[in-house]
Specification:
The protein is α/β, with parallel strands linked by helices and 257 residues long. It has a single domain, classed as Rossmann fold (3-Layer(aba) Sandwich). It is built from 11 helices and 8 strands. A 6-stranded mixed beta sheet has the order 2-1-3-4-8-5, with helices on both faces. A two-stranded antiparallel sheet has the order 6-7. β3, α5 and β4 form a beta-alpha-beta unit. The longest helix has 17 residues. The protein is globular. The mean pLDDT is 91.
């Protein structure tokens, strides 16, 4: 798969869908704290597929890698500029970093095993990866309205077994509870706020929607809108509007050095 016009190297074209990404995808403090805890006392950290910089610990010696020009341009000014490179060919010597991280990116890599092996090669200590368990993706209520979207998402996420086999069988896959007012707008972040998924910008910030035909998206959005307006959504899922956390597909993979 060739890199796209803006440099996107994975299956999603962020030159097309990446505009306005940071309006909906901002680091959630609860998740950020979990990631920082797992990174431990690392002084030098590599963020692979860094995007707009979500979950990068501030005040650290951090190096970011991001192939998409659209995403690099959305990084806040206080963060270091990202290097234009891909996970599969990291431009660093062996054991260059104390720790490495990747968030919501490995499902988009062209070669998962090569990318993870590269992370292991350049990292002395822990590798921390935020991703999802594909076996749990379709358990989310959105599957009632947009099954093609969640089926697409589930197919893209690598299995827990593929990740652990590459990083090492001692790799932990830790569940990450999602807070009700999660600031990072992936699909499950709206578990108690279904109206958000009626917004085109919110859907565009979730790349799985971009792989589904426009007429299927329109049908799904219309079905969700009708369910919200009629009260059918609240009849089935209204308890989620006040539920503090949701235990969904989100996982934090931690592999020690």
């Amino acid at each position: 798969m060739a890199r796209r016009a803006d440099g996107s190297a994975g299956d999603a074209d962020y030159g097309r869908i990446g505009a306005g990404y940071t309006n909906f995808r901002q680091p959630e403090p609860v998740i950020a704290q979990r990631i920082e805890e797992m990174l431990g006392s690392a002084h030098s950290i590599l963020n692979v597929g860094a995007g707009a910089g979500s979950y990068e610990p501030r005040g650290q010696n951090l190096t970011a890698v991001e192939p998409s020009a659209s995403m690099r341009a959305q990084r806040p000014a206080e963060l270091p500029q990202a290097i234009d490179a891909t996970a599969e060919a990291l431009p660093f010597a062996d054991d260059s970093f104390d720790a490495a991280m990747a968030s919501f990116t490995i499902h988009q890599w062209r070669d998962l095993e090569q990318g993870l092996s590269e992370m292991r090669r350049v990292t002395r200590g822990p590798i921390v990866i935020l991703s999802c368990d594909p076996q749990r993706v379709c358990d989310f209520w959105l599957n009632d309205y947009a099954p093609d979207v969640l089926a697409t998402e589930a197919r893209r996420y690598p299995s827990l077994e593929r990740i652990t086999e590459t990083l090492g069988h001692t790799t932990q896959a830790l569940p990450v509870p999602i807070p009700l007012h999660c600031r990072d707008g992936f699909n499950e972040a709206y578990f108690g706020r279904p109206e958000m998924l009626l917004l085109e910008g919110a859907r565009q910030a979730n790349s799985a929607w971009s792989f589904v035909a426009p007429d299927i998206v329109s049908t799904a959005v219309a079905a969700l809108k009708a369910a919200i307006e009629s009260g059918a959504w609240d009849t089935r899922h209204g308890h989620l509007r006040d539920q503090p956390f949701y235990d969904g597909s989100l996982r934090l993979f931690v592999a020690q050095g």
